[in-house]
């Protein structure tokens, strides 16, 4: 049994994490933290947890976390995670960070896209990018996991087989992605206020969304490890859609040679043969079919000589809490699917 702590317990990804962990046979949620003064109970913060866990939050204190837990899930905004992580690592706590703070290898790239300096470059050196489908071997011994972004996981899982097998041109890849509003977190913002986003569909972050360098870094890494040195360059355009949860990406890429849908589907099936949470499907994926699950559904089409990949997942599960539990399973020697199927 592994004792775990949830840091930032009042948010959406924390709620999903706790829902998964209370059903996990090898995990016990021993501590939850919040900055709120009155030590709120988890079932007050998240009524869906009523009857499932009896725990009140406390303020974050690395000594207290280290005395209660050996693994901490950080469900904090970026910036706050890298403030909390060094103290936990110094006390031997293994960290699974759901924020973006440890995903980019280069602190200068982080500063360019996140508009503030990285305060824990040593942590960046230590961190392992927690997308099990690509880095399964590196995850079990890791002390610090950088859980991937939700759009990022969708795009990377959709493109990795094409990059790894050198099937497509590495520049001009178009990622047109749509997300439900929970992707923006629980804290109220003007753009996610009901009358602003309901019955409306809008693009945002055009040309400057911070998942762009993360997608390019990971796909560039996959490309290099299979022998191709050119960087990967994507045009990533996110959209906000008036639904609670789910991401769907439609991706367009230029093949290097003639492309057959049949061969591409075979390529995807063999690439993800050992990945229980990637479903390569013949139908066109829809967010409803992966909602509340840890699955990423994807399919491939060839249209007018271009390759189209359509992929979807639940941003709060496969895009955040579910993959965090998948990483936890690998780190603690449980089957990868524990508590997730
Ligand atoms: N929502 C999603 O679909 C996804 C989110 N992520 C990432 O996961 C992390 C958590 O996201 P999510 O749960 O949606 O966010 P929420 O905004 O729902 O929750 C974050 C929680 O962190 C606490 N918090 C906020 N600011 C600070 C701060 N400055 N210092 C310490 N604690 C703070 C708050 O709790 P309190 O006020 O009680 O202290 C808050 O409830 C983020 O980094 C996000 O980018 C990643 C993939 C998908
Ligand atoms: C709809 C919406 O606002 N989505 C968020 C992405 C959430 C996510 O994956 O967060 P991090 O990668 O920052 O951890 C956004 O576009 O900023």
From TrEMBL:
Highest taxon, organism lineage: Bacteria
Chief location category: cytoplasm
Location of the Semialdehyde dehydrogenase NAD-binding domain: 3-142
EC code: 1.2.1.38
Residues the record marks as active site: 150
Alphabetic keyword roster: Amino-acid biosynthesis, Arginine biosynthesis, Cytoplasm, NADP, Oxidoreductase
Catalytic class of the enzyme: oxidoreductase
Family, as annotated: Belongs to the NAGSA dehydrogenase family. Type 1 subfamily.
PANTHER family linked to this entry: N-ACETYL-GAMMA-GLUTAMYL-PHOSPHATE REDUCTASE, CHLOROPLASTIC-RELATED, N-ACETYL-GAMMA-GLUTAMYL-PHOSPHATE REDUCTASE, CHLOROPLASTIC-RELATED-RELATED
NCBIfam families: argC
Protein name: N-acetyl-gamma-glutamyl-phosphate reductase
Lineage of producing organism: Bacteria, Pseudomonadati, Planctomycetota, Planctomycetia, Isosphaerales
């Amino acid at each position: 049994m592994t004792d775990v702590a949830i840091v930032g317990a009042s948010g959406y990804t924390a709620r999903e994490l706790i829902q998964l962990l209370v059903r996990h046979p090898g995990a016990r949620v021993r501590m939850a933290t919040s900055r709120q003064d009155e030590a709120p109970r988890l079932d007050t913060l998240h009524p869906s947890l009523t009857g499932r866990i009896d725990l009140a939050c406390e303020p974050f204190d690395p000594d207290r976390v280290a005395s209660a837990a050996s693994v901490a899930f950080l469900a904090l905004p970026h910036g706050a995670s890298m403030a909390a992580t060094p103290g936990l690592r110094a006390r031997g706590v293994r960290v699974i960070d759901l924020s973006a703070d440890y995903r980019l290898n280069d602190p200068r790239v982080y500063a360019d896209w996140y508009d503030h300096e990285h305060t824990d470059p040593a942590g960046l050196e230590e961190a392992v990018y927690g997308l099990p489908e690509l880095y399964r071997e590196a995850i079990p011994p890791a002390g610090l996991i950088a859980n991937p972004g939700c759009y990022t996981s969708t795009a990377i899982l959709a493109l990795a087989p094409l990059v790894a097998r050198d099937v497509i041109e590495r520049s001009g890849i178009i990622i047109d992605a749509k997300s439900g509003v929970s992707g923006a977190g629980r804290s109220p913002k003007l753009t996610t206020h009901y009358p602003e986003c309901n019955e409306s569909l809008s693009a945002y972050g055009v040309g400057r969304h911070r998942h762009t360098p993360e997608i390019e870094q990971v796909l560039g890494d996959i490309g290099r490890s299979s022998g191709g040195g050119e960087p990967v360059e994507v045009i990533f355009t996110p959209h906000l859609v008036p639904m609670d949860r789910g991401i769907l990406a439609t991706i367009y890429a230029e093949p290097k040679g003639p492309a057959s849908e049949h061969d591409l589907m075979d390529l995807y099936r063999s690439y993800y043969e050992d990945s229980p949470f990637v479903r390569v499907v013949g139908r066109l994926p829809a967010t409803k079919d992966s909602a509340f699950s840890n699955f990423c559904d994807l399919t491939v089409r060839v249209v007018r000589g271009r390759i189209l990949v359509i992929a979807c997942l639940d941003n709060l599960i496969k895009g955040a809490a579910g993959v965090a539990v998948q990483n936890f399973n690998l780190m603690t020697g449980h089957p990868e699917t524990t508590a997730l199927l």
